[in-house]
Amino acid sequence: MAGITLADLAAQLDAELRGDGNVVIESIAGMDQAGEGQITFLSSSKYRKHLADCQASAVMLKDGDAEYFSGNALIMAEPYVGYARVAQLLDTTPAAASDIAPSAYIADDAVIGEGVAVGHNAVIESGAQIGDNAQIGAGCFVGKNAKIGAGTKLWANVTIYHSVVLGEQCLVQSSTVIGADGFGYANEKGEWVKIPQLGTVRIGNRVEIGACTTIDRGALDDTVIEDNVILDNQMQIAHNVQIGYGTAMAGGTIVAGSTKIGKYCIIGGASVLNGHIEIADGVTITGMGMVMRSIEEKGMYSSGIPLQPNREWRKTAARTMKIDEMNKRLKAVEKQLEEKGE
Fold first, then answer.
1. In a 3-state reduction of DSSP, which class is residue 33?
2. Which GO terms describe its molecular function (predicted)?
3. Each residue of 4-44: pLDDT tens digit?
4. Contact 289, 267 (CB under 8 A)
5. pLDDT at 1
6. 342: pLDDT strictly greater than 70
7. What SS3 class is residue 47?
8. How far is the C-alpha of 87 from the C-alpha of 320, rounded, in Å?
9. In which order are the strands placed within the sheet that holds 290-291?
10. At 127, is the secondary structure helix, strand, or coil?
11. What is the residue extent of each domain of the chain?
């Protein structure tokens, strides 16, 4: 989109317009950098002091902050959401593919919907189904009997294994692998015996998955990711994991097999979740959380030692190594006091 008037933006965002509705907005920028033809936003009142110096053509802000800005404004309850909506309207990201590239391979019995685009050297195998207006980027692989929903976009080099189901309006970033074998083996006298992974992966609608993330197929049942889930880059989702509606998980997180994560959870980056546990709805786990047991109640949970200056950290580590010894000494003192009747 080349540009949009402030009045049109107000209508599309259901925002209150104050000022000149004929101003044309061409892009969005941060408050300290925005200039003519750009719109910015104020989502936290602690940055209100910067409004006086703001050079943007318009600002999205809350009603409580409106009196501190004399220029063109869009008044709304959630300016940060407004920022997201405007960014979508002005998005210039190119398509993952356009038309059907001559170098793409599409099996004769694959079902391709209307308006589908397939990039160079992509492979769509036998029995696969691609929904209307989906985009399959260059070098992607869509395995046998896989299903890709309408409007879903796969960036370059995404691998979708056989029988995986990916819903509508999903976005998968480059080099992600969905449906690889889960880590399933039996041990017979020191020799590993592979367990074929007979389930698949079922992903709902409006799910976004970052680059280089791996989601393993189920061993017997399926790995399931519900609608409106967002997964960051470089994550490992093991076999038979279930992730509930609206959950967000940051980069580097590892989830072991058969763990069930509830709805509207927020998992901080580099967290590790043990296998065969359950996480209740509405749980927040801060970054680098190590979750060894089920969490049954909504709330915020943390683990690990926050960053310290090296000298202080070494003292903390040394004391930590002595916790068992200190515990034994404490129990001995308690026993002595008990024997003395104190």
1. coil
2. N-acyltransferase activity; UDP-3-O-[(3R)-3-hydroxyacyl]-glucosamine N-acyltransferase activity
3. 999 999 999 999 999 999 999 999 999 989 999 999 999 98
4. yes
5. 53
6. no
7. helix
8. 48
9. 105-106, 123-124, 141-142, 159-160, 177-180, 214-216, 236-237, 254-255, 272-273, 290-291
10. coil
11. 4-89, 105-301, 310-339
Residues 6+ apart with CB under 8 A from 3: 24, 25, 26, 37
| Token pair of 268 as six digits | 């901080």
**Who has greater pLDDT, 3 or 100?**
100
Distance CA 63, CA 7 (A): 18
| 105-301: CATH, from 2.160.10.10, 3.40.630.10, 3.90.1300.10, 3.40.640.10 | 2.160.10.10
Integer Cα distance of 120 and 98 in angstroms: 10
Q: Which residues are catalytic?
A: 239
**Whole-number Å distance between alpha carbons of 240 and 256:** 9
What torsion do the CA atoms of 288, 294, 297, 302 make, to the nearest 10 degrees?
-20
Three-state secondary-structure class, residue 85: helix
CA distance to 331, 335, 336, per residue, from 341 (Å): 15, 10, 9
Q: Identify the bridge partners of residue 203 per DSSP, sorted by sequence position.
A: 166, 225
Query: In whole angstroms, what is the distance from residue 253 CA to residue 32 CA?
Result: 33
Q: pLDDT for 79-130, tens place per residue?
A: 999 999 999 999 999 999 999 999 999 999 999 999 999 999 999 999 999 9
Written as one letter, the residue type at 193 is V
Query: Which residue, 106, 223, 249, 227, is CA-closest to 168?
Result: 227
- Report DSSP state, residue 308: -
Which value, to the nearest 10 degrees, does the dihedral of the CA atoms of residues 254, 260, 266, 267 take?
A: -20
Please give the Cα distance from 208 to 178 (Å, whole number).
13
230-231/278-279 β-pairing: unpaired
Domain 4-89 classification at class level: alpha beta
Token pair recorded at residue 84: 């997201």
Using the structure block, give the residue that is written with the tokens 């024997």: 339
Residue 108 in tokens: 């004769």
Q: Count how many residues are written for the chain.
A: 342
φ and ψ at residue 61, rounded to 5 degrees: -155, 170
**The residue type at 179:** G
Token pair recorded at residue 152: 């879903």
d(CA 69, CA 67): 6
